[in-house]
Design brief:
Elements (H helix, E strand, L loop, with lengths): L31 H6 L29 E5 L17 H5 L6 E5 L3 E2 L3 E4 L9 E4 L7 E3 L3 E6 L2 E11 L4 E6 L9 E11 L10 E6 L2 E6 L2 E3 L3 E6 L2 E6 L2 E3 L4 E6 L2 E7 L2 E3 L4 E6 L20 E7 L2 E4 L3 E6 L1 E2 L2 E3 L2 E4 L3 E6 L17 E3 L2 E4 L8 E3 L9 E3 L2 E4 L9 E2 L4 E2 L2 E2 L2 E2 L56
């Protein structure tokens, strides 16, 4: 049994500190306008100090720069030295070599920064951003920062605001080229990327990137919070995503082996987390095959997340094959809790697999208003019969007698083995701690989800439904 820990500041901003550990989120003298802007957030990301079952660390963990190129807002004619800094990220990137830190000073930096072919190495990355304790800013423009074909690059301690297309955009240089890989975003904060109101604008967008890590970042009030298209072998962990017009986090376009874990999501209009999607054929990475079945996503796993507020759906599977939703908490007023839909249909010589073999296991679903479209909404053409529901908790908070989960509007009960239905919950709308309830000792073992939202290892002897464990929090049990 692990010892009790501090409370998670999930929903109450007053309980949050501007200082975290290990992941360079300390607030500096230029941070106040940013923190004022996030007063509707669901709290700060929690950066953990090497807890044994936390998300994998970045490839750059423990590495340090061997060279610094300085960038100061408004500088002219510089050479990158501290005395004569460059005036833009692009100017510094043009001469950056492996091991370089493109260090941004305080203030508002040039927007629409396009950076092609920035290549570090596994032992000598290239860093872009502020030093620990600062968040230099990029305000406005179509895109704040666009990297194409980056390799072994870290973007850290940076704030972007008010772009009209994407806050940060990372892609492969030529579609499907496999030349964008090992990119880490850490303590990157993006807000108000919603210029046209179409919902296609993303706070952070990545296309055709392998080995991507997005850690300890905040994305507020964008069309889509974090958009992944054809991303592989990647992790999205410990982020706060709130107020998206459409989706909080989405992985589609041929994405494979993506873990979406330990995130806090609130009031993301359509869906908290989308596993799959409906992508134009030309955007798939790798390209669509005419000889093998295609899918929007495979082996996307969403676990140890908290989804709260008024999203239309907690989780959606859309043309996702062998995907997992496990040990999450959904608490609020969604129109549906889980959606199972089809995206692209087989056409023009391309065969698409049905949405199939999904697993929904050990989740706590608690809703505060009537469900409009069925607890599990199933679209035409999906293979919902291949899904496994197991050991989930279902609770209509105001009317526990109406907690039995149903499929869509057909009123067929969801076949959930070992479900806990209508008998209370140990979580609340402010799930800072789990102090006991029907979730305790009722989960089924799921070794592939070995940790909790706090990064502690799950106890096999006290398996708890949802993102926390019975031993976590300030209560004495």
């Amino acid at each position: 049994m692990v010892s009790p820990m501090r409370r998670l500041p999930l929903l109450v901003l007053a309980a949050c500190s501007n200082t975290t550990t290990n992941h360079q989120m300390d607030a500096g003298p230029d941070a106040k306008p940013y923190y004022d802007a996030r007063t509707d957030a669901v709290g700060s990301p929690d950066a953990y100090a090497a807890r044994p079952c936390d998300a994998p660390v970045s490839f750059a963990e423990g590495l340090v720069p061997t060279r610094v190129l300085h960038v100061e807002a408004g500088a002219v004619g510089g050479d990158g030295s501290a005395e004569k800094p460059f005036g833009s990220i692009a100017a510094a990137a043009a001469i950056a070599t492996p091991g370089t830190f493109i260090q941004l000073g305080l203030g508002n930096h040039a927007t629409n920064q396009f950076i092609p072919n920035l290549h570090g190495t596994a032992t000598a990355p290239i860093w872009i951003g502020g030093v620990q304790g600062t968040h230099p800013k990029i305000n406005g423009g179509a895109e704040g920062l666009h990297l194409t074909a980056p390799q072994y690059v870290v973007i850290q301690n940076l704030e972007l605001h008010g772009q009209s297309a994407n806050g940060i955009d990372i892609d492969d240089s030529v579609g499907n080229a496999n030349d964008a890989h090992h990119v880490t975003l850490s303590s990157v904060d993006v807000y108000d990327v919603l210029e046209t109101g179409s919902g296609t604008e993303a706070g952070i967008k990545a296309s055709g990137v392998n080995d991507l890590a997005i850690h300890d970042s905040v994305v507020l009030r964008c069309g889509i919070g974090i958009e992944l298209v054809g991303v592989h072998d990647s992790v999205v962990a410990r982020n706060v995503v709130s107020g998206s017009l459409l989706h909080g986090i989405r992985a589609r376009g041929g994405s494979t082996d993506v873990d979406i874990r330990q995130n806090k999501l609130r009031d993301n209009g359509t869906t908290g987390v989308v596993l799959g999607g409906s992508t134009p054929f030309s955007q798939f990475r790798p390209p669509l095959s005419m000889t093998a079945p295609n899918a929007e996503a495979r082996r996307v796993r969403s676990f140890d997340n908290v989804v709260t507020g008024a999203s239309s759906s907690g989780f959606s599977f859309i043309s996702c094959v062998d995907c997992l939703v496990a040990h999450n908490l959904v608490f609020g007023s969604p129109l549906r809790l889980v959606g199972i839909y089809e995206g692209n249909s087989s056409q023009n010589g391309y065969t698409f697999e049905l949405t199939k073999n999904g697993r929904v296991i050990n989740n706590s679903f608690v809703w505060t208003s009537p469900i409009s479209f069925g607890h599990v909404d199933v679209g035409v053409g999906s293979s919902a019969a291949t899904f496994t529901f197991s050991h989930d908790l279902w609770l209509a908070l105001s009317t526990p007698s109406q907690s039995t989960p149903y499929l869509g509007t057909t009123f067929n009960p969801v076949p959930d083995t070992g479900a806990v239905i209508g008998i209370g919950t140990g979580y609340s709308a402010d799930p800072t701690v789990y102090c006991g309830g029907p979730e305790a000792s009722t989960a089924t073992p799921l070794p592939e989800v070995d940790g909790t939202i706090e990064g502690w290892c799950r106890s096999a002897s006290v398996p708890t439904i949802g993102p926390l464990m019975l031993s976590e929090g300030a209560c004495d049990l």
